[in-house]
Amino acid sequence: MADNLSKQPRKGILKNSSSFEGNERQREKGTKWDEMNILATLHPKDKDYGHMKIDEPKTPYTKYNEGHSDDEQDGLDADLLAKKIQLGGNELPKALVEPEVEEELSEEESAEEKEKRKIFEMKRKQHYNEYYAVKLARKLMEDDSEEDDDEAEEDESKESAGKDADSAAQSLLQDGSRHQNKHVGRSLLALLRPLLWACCTNMEEPVVSDFNVYVGTETGILKGINLNQKAVIHKNFHKIQALDREQEITSVAWGNEEENEVTLWQSGNNVEINALGKGEFLTRMRQDPTSPSMIATGGKESDLHLWDFSKPEEAIFTAKNVKPDMLELRVPVWITDISYLGDHHSIAISSRHKHIRLYDPKRQRRPTISFEWEDSPLTCISAVPSSNGQVVVGTAHGRLGLFDLRGRKPEEPVHVYKGFAGAVRDVVVHPKQPLVFSVSLDRFLRVHNLASRKLVFKEYLKSRLNCLLVRENLEEMDFIKGANTAKRKMPNQEAKPEAKIKVSKPNNKVTDAEWDSLTI
Amino acid sequence: MEMDTCTAEESQQDDRQDTIMPAHTNIKDIKNKSRRAKAFVEMKREKRKKKLQEAKEKKKLAAKLGKNAPAKKQPHTIESLREKDDTMVEEEDEELEHEEANDEYASYFTKSYVPKILITCSDNPHTKTIAFIRELCRIIPGAVPKWRSRSSIKKMVKKATDKGFTDILVVNEDRRIPNGLLVIHLPEGPSALFRLSNPKLCKDIHRDYNEITGHRPEVILNNFRTRLGRVVARMLGALFHYDPEFKGRRVCTFHNQRDYIFFRHHRYEFKNTEKVKLRELGPRFTLRLQWIQQGAFDGDYEWALKRHEMETSRRRFFL
C-alpha cells in the first residue's frame, strides 16, 4: 500500500496546469527570445513611425525637488512680505484709488494738440449730452419758426443717415407746429439719436383716437384696429408703395401720456446708446413706467443694464450671469424682452436660450429666480400690471404662458394660452381688464381672457406682425366672434383733439461695425 | 312569394280574424336565403328603374326650358364644405403684393439668379433613398447631390452659402425609405419641413428614367389658396429655374388638396386646343407641411402644425 503512494504514472496524466510554477517551465520550453535581434530591430533609430514631435513638457507642473528650501521655491520671502504689509497697510488697494489726472501729458503737448484735444472733449461732451442739446435745439427751433440753418443742418447731420430722411426731415421741420416737445420728454426716444423725422412723406393722417389697438408689421405698415364697434375695422396708416423692407417696424410706443401719439421705431440706421459694452447687439430697451428717466437694455451677449438719463456714461446696474451649468460651461445670454413688474422694483426678462429670469436690482446682481421653459426660444414677456409678480411669456413655437414669479412654483406656468400657429412676437396685458393681447408671426392678433384662457377675439391682419400697443381705456366687452357672443353697445370714445402720429426711425439693434463707426 | 300574397289577401278579406300576419316590409325579415336574395334583386331593379326615369324626366325638362333650366346640383365634398378661412388670398391685394415684392423670394422672381440646389440625405442612406435622390437630381435642373458625412445642418447652411448654393433639400429617411424633406432657402431664407409619403420611383411606375430629358420643366402650383399656401408655393416653385424650355414639354405639378401636396411629373402633348395627352415620367410623391421657420433652420416659426389644436375639424385646412 505504501508503495503505491510513491509510484509515479508512466505517462503524465496531469494536464497542463496554469499555475505559476508550471507556466515558467512551459515558457522556457516553448519560446526562445533572441535578444540581440530584438535590440536591433525593435524601434530602430532611423525608422520614422510618423509620430508628431511634441515640444511641450509633459506636465505643467515641475517636479518637487527636495533639495531646495521652501522659500526660494515659492519665490516669496516671508520676512520681506511682512515688511511690505506693514509699510503699505493704511493705503487703499489700487482698484479703489481714483486715478489722478495725468498732467504730464498735457505739458508735453503743443498748443495745437491742446486745441484739438479741447475740441474733441467738447464734442464728446456734446455727444453725451445730446439729449439736452437736442431739447435745446428744439426749443430754439420753435422760437424762430423758419429753420435756423445752422441748427437744422446740425440736427440733421447728426441724425439722419438716409437720404429720404433728409428730405422728409426738411419738410417736417418747416411745419414746426406739428411737433410737440413733451414727446421728447417722456418717451424712450430721448436717449436715442433723434432720427425723429418721418420716413415717408406721403403718409395718411387718420385720426388716432378711433383705434384702440395698434399693430406694427414686418413690412413697415402700421395698422390700427378698432375693437369697440360692431364691425371690427382695421386700417393701414401708410401708403404701401412708399415702404420697403428697410422699414420694418420693430417697436411701437405711446408718444405721450394721453396716448395721442404713436411712435414707431423702424429698423434702419444708427442708434446712439451711450455705452453698449461688450455685447453683440441690443435687442430691447424699455423705460421704467414709474420713473421715466430710467431705462433697461438687453441684447445678445449683453446682459441686463439699467441706465439713468442723468448719468449717461455708466450703467447704474449691471446684471451678473448665473453660475456655470453642470458641465462647467458659461450659460449664454440673449435677452429678447424686458418687463418691469407690478411691484415696481423687479425686472423680468425672457431670453432666446429659454430662460426666464427675475432681477431685483436693489438686492443683488445675480437673478433671484432663473429657470427654463419649453424647448423653443422665448420671444416676449410682459408683466401683468394688476398683480404682484405675474408675467406672460411667449415662445417662438407658438405658446403663451402665464407665470407667477412670486408664487410657490414659478417654473410651472399657471395658464397656457393656446391657438397660435406661429411665433408670438409681442404680448401686452391690459392694465385694467383681464385680457391678454398677443400678436404673432402667423398674421393674427389674438385676445385671450387672462383667467379663463379662452380665446376672446381673433383677427387676421394680412402681414406678419411684429409689435403691439393697446389703449388703456379699452372697455371690457364681448368682441365679435361667432354667434355665441352677445353684442353689446359700447360707449363711444371721446374724440381726442390733435391726434397726430409721429414716425421715427431709430432702431434697437446696433451691430459692432456700426458701433465702431460712431465717433466717440 | 306566393304564400305571402295569399296571406295578405286573406288578411284583407277576412275581417274577423284577430291575428293579422305581418307583411314583409323588410327584406331582412325573410328567413329563407334564396327568397331573400331574390327579393333583394327585385328591389334593386325597381330602384334603378326609378332612378333612370327620374333622370330622363330631368333631361326632358332641361331640354324644354333650355337656358332657364335649374342648375345642376353639385354633390357635397369635403373641399366644398371647407371651413371658411380668413387667410384666403384674394387677387390683387395691395398688401400682399407689397409683402411679396420684399420678401426673400423677390430676387428669384426678378430673375436675378439661377437656383442652384444642394440635395443631401441623412447619414447612412439605403438604396431607396439614394435612388430617390438621384431621381430628384434628374427632375430639378441645377441640382447637385452630396453625401451628408455627418455634418450638422447649420454648418451645412454656412458652407453652402459660401459656395453659392441657393437652396438645400435634405431628404430624411426612416425604415429604409425616404420620409421627410427639409427645404432651406439659403441666404437666410425660410426653411420648411415636409413629411414625404408614398414615394414612387420611375421603375415603380414602369417607366424608364432615360425618358426624362434635360429640358427645364414648367412648374404648376395648384390650389394654394391661403396665405400660408402661397408662401409654400413660392418656396417650392423657386427650386426650379425661372424660364422653362417649352420645347421639352415637361411639366412638374405640385397640386394641393386638403393640405397634402401631390407631386407629379409629366410630358404633355396637345392634340388640339382641348385635348392633351399626358405621359407620366419620373418620380411621384406627396408632401405634407410640418412647419415653416423664418430663418435657415433657426429663428421663429411662422407656422407649425400642432395636431391637437389644429386638427379639430375634418373640414379645416391650412394650405
UniProtKB/TrEMBL annotation, chain A:
Pfam families: IPP-2, WD40. One of its GO terms (biological process) is ribosomal large subunit biogenesis. GO terms for molecular function: protein phosphatase inhibitor activity. Residues 99-112, 143-157 have a biased composition (Acidic residues). It comes from the Eukaryota. Residues 1-34, 47-76, 95-114, 142-178, 488-520 are annotated as: Disordered. SUPFAM superfamilies: WD40 repeat-like. Residues 22-34, 47-58 have a biased composition (Basic and acidic residues). One of its GO terms (cellular component) is preribosome, large subunit precursor. InterPro entries: PPI-2, WD40/YVTN_repeat-like_dom_sf, WD40_repeat_dom_sf, WD40_rpt, WDR74/Nsa1. Belongs to the protein phosphatase inhibitor 2 family. This is WD repeat-containing protein 74.
